[in-house]
Design brief:
Elements (H helix, E strand, L loop, with lengths): L6 H31 L5 H15 L18 H32 L1
Amino acid sequence: MNKEVNWYNLFVTYLMFAILYSGIIWGIWAFLFEPFFNVHFTYLQVIGAYTALRLLFGNTNTNYISNFYTPKSMDLNKIDDYLKQIQADLDKEADEVEKQYEDLNKKD
């Protein structure tokens, strides 16, 4: 696993998404829900709430945001090996379940 982190790229990408998504959330709230609930939020309040929620509940195990703009392509061999490992695990579990059902049929 690659342990090198491009902190500038990560920071700029998170900042861009925070500004973009906060703007979308604020626009939806301001034009759709504010007239019904009569609660006004400023854009800065929305960006703060979005950032806090992202820090508290965001998935930090993903790295798709950190390499969103990188020119390097993904290592397809790693992805292929990972998918083959998952398929092998699923086949193993399916064989175990089949064996259990064969044992039950023999008892009957």
